[in-house]
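pinning this so it doesn't scroll away 📌
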Amino acid sequence: MTAVRILGIVAGIGLFLMAVRAYERRRISRLNLIVVTLLGTALVVLSLRPSVYDPVFNWFDIVPGAERRVIFVLVIGVLLLFFLVLRLQSGSDTNDRGLRLLVEALGSERFDWDRAAAFPEGRRIVVILPAYNEQESVGDVVRAIPRELEGRQVIPVVVSDGSDDATARRARDAGALVTELPIRRGGGLALRVGYEIALQLDAEIVVTMDADGQHLPSELPVMLRPIVDGSADYVNGSRILGEFERESLLRHLGVHLFARIVTVLTGRRITDPSSGYRAARAELLQRFVLEEDQFWTSEILIEALRHRARVVEVPVTIVARAGGESKKPASLRYGWSFSKVIVQTWLR
């Protein structure tokens, strides 16, 4: 038996075993299991008894010799598997989008609308704080947010991203309006829920900041000033222009690398695309197309530049988190995922 036939047998058995394992984990349907099983069986039969397929080979004019028939079937099998993977991916994307929309709808429904109705009418600034298990710091951050700035009422909104601690309760006790997402999906989805709520609250300006204490509420006037005086539509807080407590050399280098990538792709000099301290006119946010559940900071910035918004960077201070643990993945994984989001958003 030749090496090609042995490879065909191994490939057929391997496909079957992988399909069974995926089916047991409920990653594929029974129909997909049957299809893959048939493909694997056909490949094994071909490797053992090629003569069974003589009618098919003759129809395609595939003559015997040099393992042409086995190679032909391997190619056909790869093409069939390719289309099967596309089918699976399409179904996965559809399910993921449905889940995303469901979580966003539940987040809006669970918001403190009754408490929000008690706030006085008038011009409003909404500060959104996505939070996952930030019970140690969220209360202090909310209390430090001034309740009035630039003649506008400031309303803190905490979006608890599937937290399983006291984050939501401590945020409410500190005076924030809160919504709780049923499962954790990432800061990007939490932010989209916050944006939708801010628009329904008739916000004039929407600010985003971290709930872990790394962003200083005392610097809100700096973030708001370019929008209030009419010189900007979108403000990005930059640690490079201001001050920061460096977490690690690798992450520090990453900030500069991401800044360079965004600058080259957009033609606008950006110094800190990974900063979560942002401010934007509410009317601008209505035009954004946001899809990322994680690593969202670059997506929002590039969307602002895509819509030719007047983007201004201002110096801010980023300090070490006040408590709890960082939710960011390992540096290399974070860097790869962040870079991928930058490119994907730019290619839309």
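📌 and the second one:
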Amino acid sequence: MNAIFDYQLVMVNARAGTGKTTLAVACAKIFKKPLTYIFNPVQESSMGFRPGTQSEKESIYHQPLIDALLEINENPIQCVYNEEVLENEALRKKVTVKRVSDKIWCYPKSPLFLRGTNLKDMTIIIDECQNFTLMELRKIFTRIHDSCKVICIGHSGQIDIPVSKSGFVPYMEHFKDQPYCKIVTLTKNFRGELANWADTLKC
């Protein structure tokens, strides 16, 4: 948390259960800026076609964000942007969408739709960063203005894409000597003994 407050870019390489997403979301709430939560639908091709709207298909990837919000006593239904939920709530209350969106501060995004956009005056969390390719991370980083806080969280030991394609470790090496960047490692698994021991098995 000290690193997040003191540096523009923090890259966290930590095992599962170390609280990295919860801490990042808690800091984002304190900053009182919009939070852009960037996730990667890396398992989409293995699951095949699934019915539903774009928001419904992507919502499965929001679970780490939702869990973190619940942990810090935030209501995900009220603070996470979801176009369908907003429209339905506005219809139910017979008001404009703007009237029911005043508590929203979390905006989940897939990197698929970031080309050409500007990311400014916000907190940015790139979750499961180890599953982004070098080019995907380049696309994200080159959208970011200096008015943003950026928190990249992942674990180099849990890469779900070909290891040679992951941009997580290469970008940690690329940024490590920059004065605005801090590389952080967390070691304590707060889920308990079983989860911690399971993570020690070499794959």
